[in-house]
Amino acid sequence: MINITLPDGSVRNYEKGISSMDIALSISEGLARNVLAAKVNGEIWDSNRAIQQDSKVQLLTWNDPEGKSTFWHSSAHLLAEAIESLFPDAKFGIGPAIENGFYYDIDFMGKDFSQENFDAVEKKMLELAKQKNEYKRSEVSKADAISYFTKKGDPYKLELIEGLQDGQITFYQQGNFVDLCRGSHIPNTGFIKAAKILNVAGAYWRGNEKNKMLTRIYAITFPKDKELKDYLTLLEEAKKRDHRRLGKELELFTFSEKVGMGLPLWLPKGAILRERLESFMRQAQVKRGYQQVITPHIGSKELYVTSGHYAKYGADSFQPIRTPDVDEEFLLKPMNCPHHCEIYKFKPRSYKELPLRLAEFGTVYRYEQSGELHGLTRVRGFTQDDAHIFCRPEQVKEEFSRVIDLVLYTFGALGFDDYVAQISLRHQTEREKYIGSEETWERAEQDIIEATAEKNLKTVIAYGEAAFYGPKLDFMIKDALGRKWQLGTIQVDYQLPERFKLEYIGADNQKHQPVMIHRAPFGSLERFVAVLIEHCAGNFPLWLSPEQIAVLPISEKYHDYAEKLFGILQENDIKGFVDQRDEKIGRKIRDAEMKKVPFMLVVGEKEQETNSISVRKKGEGDLGSMEISAFVAYFKDLLKKELN
RNA sequence: GCCAAUAUAGCUCAGUGGCAGAGCACUUCCUUGGUAAGGAAGAGGUCAUGAGUUCAAUCCUCAUUAUUGGCUCCA
Question: Domain check: are A40 and A110 in the same one?
Answer without folding.
Answer: no
